[in-house]
Recover the amino acids of this structure.
């Protein structure tokens, strides 16, 4: 697979359709996250603002070719608590600006290097878990049960329900019209994904997701005229705020309350947002780079700076905090996006549609959009991913599975934390076994055992070296060779010295050391 790099528009035939699909995915997510975060219909546009900034501003500044930024479900709880603490949305916007400034500072301080320390097994577990979560969370919307907001990722929901009770409710309170629309939409998406359909010129530039949305609108209008009981309305449709004039439209934009600059809580919330948003961004960057068919690497420090500028801009004009998000990034990749033009395109379409066609967008059934997200979820959690991880052995497979279970039963960041603990355990376990090379030889005067220490011997190797020395046979000669070591931690030197001076003589073990001059110095402490 080749990639044209002449200019930003060289891959427009791939990036524009992908941007359009990302827009269709992002629109309900922006609105759903805004409603869940603020609980106010008059602030729904804050999600659209965040989506536009994530696409246009962050997309223009980022070094990520396929990552898409916007409002994230992982920040909902923080936003809700922040609004309760600060008492006003305008004061909260100031905290968003401060969070952005902190992210910019972190980027210039090279804090993006943290992103390189997430184990591959945990990142792949995160991708699989998000895929399963998407499927489980979108089934209710496909059935016409839209009590929970679109884009929720947490197991426990704000309405007291959880992922599994929501599945039961979706069957109990299902809508025939929604089921028909989502089923036909799924069938169409599967058809459009077939190789023979991609040979048709029209479908190379116009994505199948657009036809699915248009079909859902038409079919719902047909229901309205023929079988009113099947018609979807109200909460079952996109609900984009509609302005009757320019003044009302500009009223959707808010500015920060700078009088709150002296409040300690503003800085506390700003710091919290900066940390969580940065972590989610770095996780998404790692996951997106793994999905990238061209295997490009995103400069993480530049990404933090771009996200920071995005959050400063979003906070200044009334938007929610933003991060890079894997669902939209994955949709971008699956739709054939190649460069950041697709991200910029999705943000531009969000802006133009909010200005010119909000009434028409409000005819779109959530059931059609749920079908698109179900397909995205399936592609993130294919069975082949599990097979591949299983073949890599338990040191990769166990952290992978634990990460999935933890994310599904809690939320993204908590699940990642649990997965990291398990992955680090296996890393330490493996590291402890590779601190030396054990050579045993038979001589006339008895056994001669040589322990050749590795280049780097740290406190992590202390346990394995200590256990090996304890299990040496009595009456043997032991040569501890550190001549190839660049560094030996004090902890390990201390163990060698203790063994040489105290334990070895009691067992008639002769100990010789090579290239470990510091051993004698340790004995003097």
């Amino acid at each position: 697979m080749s990639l044209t790099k002449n200019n930003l528009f060289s891959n427009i035939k791939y990036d524009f359709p992908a941007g359009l699909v990302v827009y269709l995915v992002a629109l309900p997510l922006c609105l759903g996250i805004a409603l869940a975060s603020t609980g106010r219909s008059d602030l729904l546009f804050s999600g659209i603002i965040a989506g536009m900034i994530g696409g246009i501003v962050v997309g223009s500044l980022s070094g990520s070719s396929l990552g898409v930024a916007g409002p994230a479900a992982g920040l909902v709880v923080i936003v809700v608590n922040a609004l309760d603490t600060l008492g006003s949305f305008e004061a909260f916007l100031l905290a968003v600006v401060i969070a952005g400034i902190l992210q910019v500072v972190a980027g210039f301080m090279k804090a993006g290097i943290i992103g390189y320390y997430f184990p591959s097994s945990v990142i792949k577990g995160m991708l699989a878990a998000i895929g399963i979560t998407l499927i489980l969370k979108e089934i209710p919307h496909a059935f016409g049960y839209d009590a929970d907001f679109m884009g929720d990722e947490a197991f426990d929901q704000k309405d007291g329900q959880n992922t599994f009770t929501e599945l039961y409710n979706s069957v109990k309170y299902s809508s025939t019209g929604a089921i028909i629309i989502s089923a036909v939409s799924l069938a169409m998406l599967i058809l459009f994904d077939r190789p023979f359909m991609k040979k048709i010129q029209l479908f190379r530039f116009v994505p199948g997701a657009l036809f699915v949305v248009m079909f859902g609108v038409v079919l719902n209008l047909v229901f309205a005229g023929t079988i009113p009981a099947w018609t979807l309305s109200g909460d079952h449709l996109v609900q984009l705020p509609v302005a009757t004039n320019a003044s009302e439209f500009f009223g959707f934009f808010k500015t920060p309350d700078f009088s709150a600059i002296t409040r300690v809580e503003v800085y506390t919330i700003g710091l919290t947002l900066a940390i969580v948003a940065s972590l989610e961004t770095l996780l998404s960057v790692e996951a997106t780079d793994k999905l990238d068919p061209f295997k490009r690497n995103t400069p993480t420090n530049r990404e933090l700076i771009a996200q920071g500028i995005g959050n400063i801009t979003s906070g200044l004009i009334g938007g929610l905090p933003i991060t890079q998000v894997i669902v939209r990034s994955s949709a971008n990749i699956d739709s054939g996006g190649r460069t950041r033009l697709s991200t910029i395109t999705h943000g531009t379409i969000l802006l133009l549609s909010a200005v010119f066609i909000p009434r028409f967008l409000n005819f779109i059934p959530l059931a059609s959009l749920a079908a698109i997200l179900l397909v995205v979820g399936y592609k993130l959690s294919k069975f082949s991913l599990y097979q591949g991880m299983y073949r890599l052995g338990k040191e990769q497979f166990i952290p992978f599975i634990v990460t999935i279970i933890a994310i599904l039963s809690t939320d993204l960041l908590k699940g990642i934390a649990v997965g990291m603990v398990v992955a680090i355990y296996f890393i330490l376990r493996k590291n402890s076994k590779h601190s030396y090379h054990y050579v045993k030889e038979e001589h006339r005067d008895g056994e001669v055992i040589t322990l050749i220490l590795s280049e780097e011997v740290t406190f992590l190797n202390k346990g394995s070296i200590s256990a090996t020395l304890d299990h040496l046979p009595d009456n043997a000669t032991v040569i501890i060779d550190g001549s190839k070591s660049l560094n030996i931690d004090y902890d390990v030197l201390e163990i060698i010295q203790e063994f040489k001076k105290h334990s070895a003589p009691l067992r008639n073990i002769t100990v010789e050391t090579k290239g470990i001059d510091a051993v004698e110095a340790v004995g003097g402490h």
Notes: The chain has two domains: 12-405, 436-523. Residues 519-525 have pLDDT under 50 and may be disordered.
